[in-house]
Amino acid sequence: QVQLGESGGGLVQPGGSLRLSCAASGFTFSNYAMSWYRQAPGKERELVAYINSDAGSTKYADSVKGRFTISRDNAKNTVYLQMNSLKPEDTAVYYCKANHQRFLRPIYWGQGTQVTVSS
Questions:
Q1: If 0-12 CB within 10 Å is exposed, 13-18 middle and 19+ buried, where does residue 79 land?
Q2: pLDDT (tens digit, 9 = 90+) per residue, 2-59?
Q3: What is d(CA 37, CA 64) in angstroms, rounded to the nearest whole number?
Q4: What are the φ and ψ backbone dihedral angles of 77, each rounded to 5 degrees?
Q5: DSSP secondary structure of 23-64
Q6: CA–CA gap between residue 34 and residue 59 (Å, rounded)
């Protein structure tokens, strides 16, 4: 059974930091590219960060470049999102996504974790 479980969300003040984790099981994690998406109320889900299967390539949305870092540990079947200098506009539900690196599908989604940036 495929599972993606996000954790690490919460309430943080502007300028603060959080690290999200996404633990995967039920598929060969090292064959999958991983991404973090987010969705704020009333807005479409957007790509935040991407990392390929061997961590050799990463991409970021312009809005988070220089503040967020995506990484992965294939031995632990986990992908991370380090978020620094958080802003109120980073408030959203954050989701991790897995897609096969070579064939693009199948695609798996986690259930999401809430991040709220507020004073």
A1: buried
A2: 999 999 999 999 999 999 999 999 999 999 999 999 999 999 999 999 999 998 899 9
A3: 12
A4: 55, 45
A5: EEESS-GGGEEEEEEEE-TTS--EEEEEE-TTS--EEE-TTT
A6: 11
